[in-house]
Amino acid sequence: MPALEFHIDATRPHLRELAVSLEFDRAECTAGADPRGNSDAAGQVVLFLPNWTPGSYLIRDYSRHLSRVEACDSRSGEPIPCRKTSKNRYLLQVPATTARVRVSYRVYAHELSVRTADVTAGHAYWNHACVLLWPVGQPRLAAQLHIAHRADWAVACALANHAAPHASFAGDVATTTLTANDLDHVIDSPCLVGRFQRLEWQVDGVPHAAVLDGLAGVAAPNTLGADLGAIVTEVAAVFAGALPYRSYLFLCLFAGEGHGGLEHAESTTLLMSRTALTSPRGYREFLTLAAHELFHAWNVKRMRPSEFWQYDYENENYTELLWLIEGWTAYYDDLVCLRAGLMSVPDYLAALAKSINTMRASPGRHRLSLRESSFDAWIRLYRPDENSRNSSQNYYVHGSLAALCLDVLIRRTSDGTHSLDDVLRELYRGTFEHGRGYAMEDVDAAVRRCSGAETVGALHTWVGESFEPDLHGLLTAVGIRLVEREEDRPQLGIHFHSDSTKVASVQADTAAHEAGVAPGDELLAVQGLRVDAASWQETFQSVAKVEQPLELLLSRRGVITTCTAVPRPAKGTLALELDDAATPRQQQLRSAWLRQGPSSQRCEGSTEA
Predict the structure, then answer these.
(1) Portion of the chain with pLDDT greater than 70, in percent
(2) pTM
(3) Which helix (H) or strand (E) holds 425?
(4) Are 52 and 58 in contact, with CB atoms under 8 Å apart?
(5) Are 378 and 316 in contact (CB under 8 A)?
(6) Of 280, 276, 347, 265, whose CA–CA distance to 55 is shortest?
């Protein structure tokens, strides 16, 4: 019997909660107890609930959703003292006469996101980081999970691939039993219970599946299984080795709104609007999200920084390398779809142009480097405010552009014999396959072997200083033109809250910034003309002139005030186009970079179950 035995009851959706109990032998869990100063006390067991989930870098304090935690002797029912010692830790004083302990509590579950828990009449979904109390100092204990659910519901979880699930039935309730090897394994394996559509296929003989929950009558594309199979094939080709898992599961949650993904070693959770699958653009966004999270099965779930080699689930885990973990993955999600024939070259170039324009409108890239922004993810990216655009940079978007620059530079300097694919392979084989995490020195070594010391220097400039790459020079080398569409319309540099003229943010070094407009101000009139959310844009464009003073009437914290702004010309937007005048060498590099074509020949069919 596994050391830890959990019972998770998901049969009461009207309460929007999971009822959880944990049983364990006293002797197995007291040895590793660390009650912060009392670790030598006989019979003490300390349980903790994680404070965050890997892949989502913010302390989320999941314990706020726990009820009172109670303990007893599992045989006699005698209560065992249980005292909360911190926000997420519980100290049990287990008598020597107690052989086996039962701990009981409830988890409020009413947040549909990829990192939390949600129980409704239609499904139950949870990450185990939100749900399972675990003995401190015992991360290697195995666990068995008994999940009680409606008899007409099924269970989808990567854990089922390691020990065949056993189901028992009692009236309208079924119990499915899963097994986890240790703490990391169970935290990395979210669970979905419900009635869902299931697609199955194989790639290189490895089983893959996608479960589709919440479509509510919206039909998924007939090609979905084959398209996901093609993405798997292309991601595997980047790393040029066997698939690193024994099976893989896409947990697809659909709702009225929402967007997000969270990676796991043998599964991923994807959340999107259910109508996304009905339009070409929405379906393309779904596929790129799936490609992004699948890519993480290699990049961070296996190959990862040394700081992440052993997770601390109670505290922040800092690294300066999220620009590689997330940024390089964001670069490949579109590129993989292009290579799989699921995105056209014009659509791919348009996606790159959008990222470039986003970067150009982000003054924070001159204030904080990609390495610094990665380190500060815990206090910046996941806690955005009105000044975020001015004070930091997004390591997803800007990290993807740094990856683009590095890929193109490697192709140019190696005359097409190497690419960023080769860097990833070198890094993967040199670190993860040797049982260790990587540091920046390992990244440097992989880049140097593929492209030389100058390319290493360029990478350090892009990630360690202000991010201002020479995109024109780099993309010209691969036959791509940057076309700037100039705009002479006036611009203030403010962003409003939706459906209002209340200022949400002010972009640094713009007319509004220089005039002293602040977040929270409400814009009442411009040049003496009353404005609201509906009339603002038309009124502003009618009276504003570039480099001519403009009077703004504001309400600031309940006081009416005025200021004068001098609009500047709006920055033009960039578009990317194939250069018809590219040299044969440039065209050759471009063709190798933007190669396209279906790759489903490795995918051995798709079936629905």
Answers:
(1) 94
(2) 0.91
(3) helix 420-430
(4) yes
(5) yes
(6) 265
